[in-house]
């Protein structure tokens, strides 16, 4: 149990385009989903926390207009990187939780490359 | 501010024992996680310490001292497949705060 999927696993896009990444909890209902970004050889940095049906809470320094998060259902959250630039190239990982931060199940990650 | 520090890189020999340290200063603390992460993959759960002391789980053990803001992950009988990054993360009530991560390389 507690499987989280992400789609796509890899995406390459041109600078200026928008990219949507999906995060799904496959066998449980996730009231909270977390989005992380990981640059090469660095640790996970929390970008935002999203609760189903409400606006996401963004970490300091993360532009909410650039990284749009939607958590429309208890099994799906999406992250849209708008007007992507090469510096947005990173590994994006989501996690899903039944409610508490100490029980997060991680997705397999999405490798974004912006040319 | 929130600070969680780990050594950047460590190397060890197959069959040996290695200890990866994690020191933290955070505004809140409910417990501390250790995760293993292979390149290009998601982190996988290793341990979660809430109380002071050592918890053993097979070849891996994790220690916590809340008063000292200190934890370590102990890996015994190292295998080549243990080459990975090891991340400590503080459970800060409403989110996890990850440490800088330690890349461990195991040599034959």
Structural description of this entry:
- By secondary structure, chain A is mostly beta strands.
- Chain A has strands spanning 4-7, 10-13, 19-25, 32-38, 45-51, 57-58, 67-73, 76-81, 90-97, 104-106, 110-114.
- Helices cover 0% and strands 52% of the residues of chain A.
- In chain A, the strands form two sheets. In chain A, strands 2, 4, 5, 6, 9, 10 and 11 form a seven-stranded mixed β-sheet that branches. Chain A has a four-stranded antiparallel β-sheet with strand order 1-3-8-7, with no helix packed on it.
- In chain A, a hairpin with a 5-residue loop joins strand 5 (45-51) and strand 6 (57-58).
- Chain B starts with a strand and ends with a strand.
- Chain B has 108 residues and is mainly beta.
- Chain B has strands at residues 3-5, 9-13, 18-25, 31-37, 44-49, 53-57, 60-65, 70-75, 84-91, 96-98, 102-107.
- Chain B is 0% helix and 58% strand.
- Classes of the chains: A mainly beta (115), B mainly beta (108).
Strand content of chain A: over 45%
Name the largest protein-protein interface in this structure: A-B, 19 and 23 residues
Helix-and-strand structural type of chain A = mainly beta
| Unreliable segments of 5+ consecutive residues of chain A | none
**Helical stretch tally of chain A:** 0
The quaternary structure here is heterodimer
Distance between the termini of chain B: 40 Å
Could you outline the blueprint of secondary structure elements for this entry?
The complex is a heterodimer of chains A (115) and B (108).
Chain A: E1 4-7, E2 10-13, E3 19-25, E4 32-38, E5 45-51, E6 57-58, E7 67-73, E8 76-81, E9 90-97, E10 104-106, E11 110-114
Parallel strand pairs in A: 2-11
Antiparallel strand pairs in A: 1-3, 3-8, 4-5, 4-9, 5-6, 7-8, 9-10, 9-11
Chain B: E1 3-5, E2 9-13, E3 18-25, E4 31-37, E5 44-49, E6 53-57, E7 60-65, E8 70-75, E9 84-91, E10 96-98, E11 102-107
Parallel strand pairs in B: 2-11
Antiparallel strand pairs in B: 1-3, 3-8, 4-5, 4-9, 6-7, 7-8, 9-10, 9-11
